[in-house]
Design brief:
The complex is a heterodimer of chains A (111) and B (123). Chain A is mostly beta strands. The mean pLDDT of chain A is 94. The radius of gyration of chain B is 14 Å and the shape is globular. In chain B, the strands form two sheets. In chain B, strands 2, 4, 5, 6, 9, 10 and 11 form a seven-stranded mixed β-sheet that branches. Chain B starts with a strand and ends with a strand. Classes of the chains: A mainly beta (111), B mainly beta (123). Chains A and B meet through β7 and β8 of A and β5 and β10 of B.
Chain lengths: 111, 123
């Protein structure tokens, strides 16, 4: 069982916006701003798309944005495209366990 | 080209050990940690631990302590993951990924991933 809770699936139509939540505790998501998000297409390695809650690495589309409120972080994808269909994982530093933890992952379907 | 290249697919029997390599290129190897993350078939990501590519210092997720060893060889810019006493539950894709040493340890994000190494454990 993952320490961070994500919805198993979300869906949206092309052009729409969707939000994926990542809920933890004050020991991880709520305790600092070290939340990251990863996109994983089938058969591929994960790719970093958001770090430090709301920062985008160079080359990542402006359509991807992150935020946080309390113990819940969120990833928003605007202007959905077919290529956004993938699994999305949140990650966080944690003071429980040893160092880092991932969410269980969310499958995004573009209808 | 900045990349992490991993060793190839492994098939092992229960009780055996496996050692996977992760070779870095295009950046200064010792400026980063190498983290190891695994993904069982159809499952999510599971963080296993990390190694400081400069000092060789390691941090293991508690679940793996005593059964996993992470090492590195800066002379060939390569990190290694060894998993002992394999069971079918260890069947997974094992990814290496890097994190900069130039930011605080708590600033936990992995900005470059290897392609993964499939390890299958079966009798």
């Amino acid at each position: 069982q993952s320490a961070l809770t994500q919805p198993a699936s979300v869906s949206g139509s092309p052009g729409q916006s969707i939000t994926i939540s990542c809920t933890g505790t004050s020991s991880d998501v709520g305790g600092h701003n070290f939340v990251s998000w990863y996109q994983q297409h089938p058969g591929k390695a994960p790719k970093l798309i958001i770090f430090e809650v709301n920062h985008r690495p160079s080359g990542v589309s402006l359509r991807f944005s992150g935020s946080k409120s309390g113990n819940t972080a969120s990833l928003t994808i605007s202007g959905l495209q077919a290529g956004d269909e993938a699994d999305y994982y949140c990650g966080s530093y944690t003071t429980r366990g040893t160092l880092g933890v991932f969410g269980g992952g969310t499958k995004l379907t573009v209808l | 080209q900045v990349q992490l290249v991993q060793s190839g697919t492994e098939m092992k029997k229960p009780g055996a050990s496996v050692k996977i390599s992760c070779r870095a290129s295009g950046y200064i190897f010792t400026d980063y940690y190498i983290h190891w993350v695994r993904q069982a078939p159809g499952e999510g990501l599971e963080w296993m631990g990390r190694i400081n590519a400069d000092s060789g210092g390691t941090t293991y997720e508690k679940h793996f302590q005593g059964r996993v060893t992470m090492t590195s060889d800066a002379s060939v810019s390569t990190a290694y993951l060894e998993v002992n006493r394999l069971t079918s539950d260890d069947t997974a894709i094992y990814f290496c990924a890097r994190k900069s040493r130039m930011v605080p340890s708590a600033n936990w994000y992995l900005d470059l991933w290897g392609p993964g190494t499939l390890v299958t454990v079966s009798s």
